[in-house]
Amino acid sequence: MPELPEVEIVTRALRSRVSGLTIEKVEIFSPAMRTPLAPLLSAGLEGRKIVDVARRGRYITVEMTGKKYLLMHLGMSGVLRVEPAAVPRRKHEHIFFHLSDKSLLRFECTRRFSLCEACDGYPEKLAGLGVEPLTADFSAEYFFAASRRHSGSVKNFLMDNAVQVGVGNIYAAETLFAAGVSPLRPACEISMDEAAKIVAAVKRILSAAIEAGGSSIRDYRHLDGSEGRFSRLLRMYGHAGEACPVCGTTIEQVRLGGRSSCFCPKCQK
DNA sequence: CTTTCAGCCTGACGGC
DNA sequence: TGCCGTCAGGCTGAAA
Description:
It is a single chain. The protein is of the alpha+beta class. The protein folds into two domains: 4-126, N-terminal domain of MutM-like DNA repair proteins, CATH 3.20.190; 140-263, Helicase, Ruva Protein, domain 3 (Orthogonal Bundle). It is 22% helix and 23% strand. The strands form three sheets. It has a four-stranded antiparallel β-sheet, with helices on one face. Strand 2 and strand 3 form a beta hairpin. Helix 2 (140-147) crosses helix 5 (192-211) and helix 4 packs across helix 5 (192-211). It is elongated. The relative contact order is 0.15. The protein binds a DNA duplex (16 and 16 nucleotides) through residues 1-3, 33-34, 58, 73-77, 92, 109-113, 115, 149-152, 156, 159, 161, 168-169, 217-218, 257-260.
């Protein structure tokens, strides 16, 4: 499941691979993913050159000439690949973008939670997103101040994309463990010192995950289909019932906001 | 305003 | 063998 590191890796690869190419033809093979796909065929994408590919939160924006954009989100199981046209279409590949170097940008999504929409101008829905965690905007002061009015759990607060983007279930578990903070704690009761530890852990762990090529859990793959190496560095996520790597206490699992949350009851207070 | 939660969707897996 | 229930989970929109 792609979180910020995985989306960042895909974005970088896509930028270097397709920038400067022209979209010659769009093909769809399903009526919809999260939203209907038919509008892609009538959006006037054919003949436009790709100017840039960027990331905002977990969204990928493909900028084309004439200020047309493709807004993409990989959801839970989305995979983007750039491959020769001769490779047979996979069962859950829903969109082909035929590119001017005769390759295909292929959008696969098993569960169809992904998003791919054409926009005139920079996508408006990105305006409401919170700060980027790997910029100076995401500071201990910001996180602490924003948390004051949230009575819900600090884990759900950390995953709130209106506050800061890109931290999903995997990295929330990892960063709270690294910061020594229990996911069950109300966000408004976190101290300034703990806010600083959480912010530092988010920056450190997301950066390390990008360096390691992301975490391949279930569906995530690189543009060339290879897997990330960060999965085996995950210390809490997916380790319920096992021994904490620091103190040996059995890792507990609870449900928060409908999602399973692993933590060490001794290391995280 | 915040917060919770069902629903979207398919595949893997366990129990019978 | 195969059927059923559960889980995985980002995001949306409705309800509380």
